[in-house]
Structure formats: C-alpha cells, structure tokens
C-alpha cells in the first residue's frame, strides 16, 4: 500500500488556507492498511497537528509507536540509567574515559 504523501496535506493547507490538515486513508484487503498524513501552516499549528495525530494514533486507532531510540550523550554513546540520586559520577567518569580511549586521545 502506498502512503499518502505529506505534500498532499501541504497542498491543501497552502491552497485552501487551512491552518491544520490531517488526512486519514484506509485500504481493505491483503495489501491494505491505514495511514495518516498531516501538515500545519506554521510551527504553532504543526505542533498542534502533531498532538492531534498522536492522540488519534494512540487513543482512536490503537496504533502503538515503535520503541524509542535509546538516548545518547554528546559523544554518541548510550546514556546510563540514573541512580536514585540522579546519577553515579563514578560511572560517568568511566564512560568519558572509555570514549576518549576509543578516539585515541588519552
């Protein structure tokens, strides 16, 4: 099934003067599926559309989001889980020194 291009929502937004456009498509059968395409006329309305689509996906259609990517620090390494006090400075020191070793700067 082909997805509805975001350009379709942008076209409606720009040509017809809407602030938020959300397009829902559904196709039945073996090659079927559902999709949502949306657009906001500016940053404020784009954020509004994001929230509306998030609500539709989770509460109305029951779609689950994929697992979020693990957070990374500024060196591109996975973030360590925080302890009850907000983090372990010893672990943080080891993380930084390991990164420096891999870059050959130590």
Overview of this protein structure:
The protein starts with 5 loop residues before the first helix and ends with a helix. It contains three helices and two strands. The chain folds into two domains: 6-60, no CATH class; 68-101, no CATH class. A two-stranded antiparallel ribbon has the order 1-2. It has 106 residues and is of the alpha+beta class. Residues 92-103 have low confidence and may be disordered.
Summary, kept brief:
With 106 residues, the chain is α+β, with helices and mostly antiparallel strands.
What is the strand and helix layout of this fold?
Elements: H1 6-16, E1 20-27, E2 33-40, H2 43-60, H3 89-103
SS elements, strand count = 2
* Percent range of helical residues: 40-55%
What string gives the helices and strands in order? HEEHH
| Largest sheet features | 2 strands, antiparallel
- Average per-residue pLDDT, rounded, comes to 76
The count of domains is 2
Distance between the termini: 52 Å
How many H/I helical runs?
A: 3
Structural class: alpha+beta
Shape: extended
């Amino acid at each position: 099934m082909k997805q509805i291009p975001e350009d379709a929502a942008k076209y409606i937004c720009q040509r017809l003067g809407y602030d938020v456009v959300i397009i829902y498509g559904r196709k039945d059968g073996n090659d079927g599926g559902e999709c949502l395409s949306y657009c906001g006329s500016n940053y404020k309305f784009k954020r509004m559309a994001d929230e509306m689509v998030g609500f539709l996906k989770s509460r109305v259609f029951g779609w689950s989001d994929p697992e979020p990517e693990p957070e990374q620090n500024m060196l591109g390494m996975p973030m360590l889980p925080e302890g009850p006090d907000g983090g372990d400075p010893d672990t943080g020191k080891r993380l930084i020194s390991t990164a420096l070793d891999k870059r050959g700067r130590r």
